[in-house]
Amino acid sequence: MKFRPVKTTFKLIAMVAVVSLVSCKKDATTSSSNSNAASMSDSSTAADNAYYDVLNTALVGSSDNMSVWSCSTARVGRTTTMSTGSISTAPLGCAIYTIDDSIPDSYPKTLTLNFGTGCTSADGIERSGIIIYHFTGPILVPGDTVTASFENYKVNGYGIQGSYTIINKSSTQEPIKFTTLVTNGIVTYPNETNYHYSHNKTYTLTSGFATPLDITDDVYSITGNSAFSTSGGSSLVFNATTPLVKAISCHNVSAGVVAFTYDDAVSGTIDFGDGTCDNLATVTVGNIHRTIILR
After folding, report:
1. In a domain, 20, yes or no
2. The domain containing residue 158 runs over which residues?
3. Tens digits of per-residue pLDDT, 237-253?
4. What's the rounded Cα separation, in Å, for the pair 194 and 252?
5. What is the C-alpha separation between 48 and 4, in angstroms, rounded?
6. 3-class secondary structure, 144
7. What is the largest CA-CA distance in the chain?
8. How many CB atoms lie within 10 A of CB 215?
9. In whole angstroms, what is the distance from residue 199 CA to residue 239 CA?
10. Any domain includes 178
11. Neighbour-count burial of 6, counting CB atoms closer than 10 A to its CB (0-12 exposed, 13-18 middle, 19+ buried)
């Protein structure tokens, strides 16, 4: 009978133990990264919604003031009772609108919406602070641009800063199309946590053609990318792999899929559903499948 030397046996046992330990640590690291990616992607949806609302508000605010854009005395410092109806039914009816229209029948124009210390408008969204839009021309005219700036502005408790630009990319051969750009964006969450945010997205009108003077039934398809990062350096980069569906009448994206990469290492997706206007989406990272609530 032959016996394996004791030293060799001990070496084999030690090697197995080391391999097992490394494998366990790798699995634990992967699991932790997946969980962090899922949690951070959940948080990012609030930033997306806050900046989506900037375009919504520009479209609604422009529509509210359509009949008075050419008036030098245009509703300065008054609450709106304009084309969308009374204060109680206007989507942004709780805002104070001020229009800088120093040269009648001409652009540029500046529209200021002041939501004060906070009010919930007819569209069910709580806004506070001031958002200022500078229009080079009518927002629905191809080639015109709108820029937005913010003063202590919050949407549902989420503060937003940065440079926001809307560019009308429509043409006579195409439906209404906008590109929106966010640079140097900062989102402050209700717990005072700050995130950096940027995006380059294109909105293409897919429904609402038959009612050009009524934007409330408009639905847009969204493509493009965004980036979201913490002060500690963790980052997410998103790309829409299936165009997102965003109705003016719905605060949230209701369909479509975005793929994301967390810290250049972990991949995942967010699926926004089947088109139903709700506040739910599904995050998938590795073996994690999590239903999240959109805010």
Report:
1. no
2. 36-293
3. 999 999 999 998 898 99
4. 22
5. 64
6. coil
7. 108
8. 21
9. 10
10. yes
11. exposed
